[in-house]
UniProtKB/TrEMBL annotation:
<keyword id="KW-0472">Membrane</keyword>
<dbReference type="Pfam" id="PF08241">
    <property type="entry name" value="Methyltransf_11"/>
</dbReference>
<dbReference type="InterPro" id="IPR029063">
    <property type="entry name" value="SAM-dependent_MTases_sf"/>
</dbReference>
<dbReference type="InterPro" id="IPR013216">
    <property type="entry name" value="Methyltransf_11"/>
</dbReference>
<keyword id="KW-1133">Transmembrane helix</keyword>
<dbReference type="InterPro" id="IPR052356">
    <property type="entry name" value="Thiol_S-MT"/>
</dbReference>
<dbReference type="GO" id="GO:0008757">
    <property type="term" value="F:S-adenosylmethionine-dependent methyltransferase activity"/>
</dbReference>
<feature type="transmembrane region" description="Helical">
    <location>
        <begin position="7"/>
        <end position="29"/>
    </location>
</feature>
<protein>
    <submittedName>
        <fullName>MET7A protein</fullName>
    </submittedName>
</protein>
<keyword id="KW-0812">Transmembrane</keyword>
<feature type="domain" description="Methyltransferase type 11">
    <location>
        <begin position="77"/>
        <end position="174"/>
    </location>
</feature>
Length: 246
């Protein structure tokens, strides 16, 4: 399909979403999205997504205890914690620092904390992935980032911060939706949906090839797999999952 086809279908989708575009133009949508819509939507999406990826996450995080510090502690930093869907996979006694650029996830986060009291919660920081200056360099054993790199302002900047806060030998876990194969219909529809999806879902980008950023970052070891998560009628089925060692 050609570029004109993409532009035409983008315009059709924008017409369907015209009320949101109007609210955005008036400066109403962004604060409403940040405070009410996106926290509500993300908690519902997380519940569906977790059912689809639970086994994959169990396998992903099974080696977390291997990255304890010499003192026997496991200090973990989660970027973009949201409503805390990953807490269930962390080992008992793990000390977690939560961060998110959006402070409006508190209700969902509190529910997740109450369900997962095997984890020690250190603090919650309002911080972007690209700017974790509140976290000292080399101070954590593990960093976790799931469904976040799609919406950060700077993927490479976020990965630089991950490397900075990790101690030598520390580990970075990731699970992200990514661009589909460029020759596929799925990629075509990602391109069609891109502008409206980004507006509606708080800056989420559909066509990022995040595996390339990870391959170019200065990790000493990278274990990465491409996979597909069954989320019918959405443009976010292609995913990558894995971990990288500093």
């Amino acid at each position: 399909m050609t570029e004109p086809s993409i532009l035409f279908l983008r315009a059709c989708l924008a017409l369907l979403a015209m009320p949101i575009y109007l609210l955005s133009f008036l400066g109403i949508w962004e604060p409403f999205c940040k405070k009410i819509f996106f926290p509500f939507f993300l908690e519902k999406l997380s519940a569906v997504h977790e059912r689809k990826v639970k086994k994959q996450k169990q396998e992903l995080f099974h080696n977390l205890p291997n990255f304890k510090s010499p003192s026997g502690e496991l200090k973990l930093l989660e970027i973009g914690t949201g409503c805390g869907p990953n807490f269930q996979f962390y080992p008992p006694g793990c000390r977690v620092t939560c961060t998110d650029i959006n402070p409006n996830f508190q209700q969902g986060l509190a529910r997740s904390m109450n369900k997962n009291q095997h984890v020690q919660y250190e603090r919650f920081l309002v911080a972007a992935g690209e700017d974790l200056h509140q976290v000292p360099s080399g101070s954590v054993d593990a960093v976790v980032c799931t469904l976040v790199l799609c919406s950060v302002q700077d993927v490479n900047g976020t990965l630089r911060e991950v490397l900075r806060v990790l101690r030598p030998g520390g580990v970075f876990y990731f699970l992200e939706h990514v661009a589909a194969d460029r020759s596929s219909w799925r990629y075509f529809w990602q391109q069609v949906c891109y502008p409206t999806w980004k507006l509606v879902f708080a800056g989420c980008c559909l066509t990022r090839e995040i595996w390339k950023n990870l391959e170019q970052a200065n990790f000493s070891e990278l274990s990465l797999q491409h996979t597909s998560v069954a989320l019918p009628w959405t443009p976010i089925e292609p995913h990558i999952i894995g971990y990288a060692v500093k």
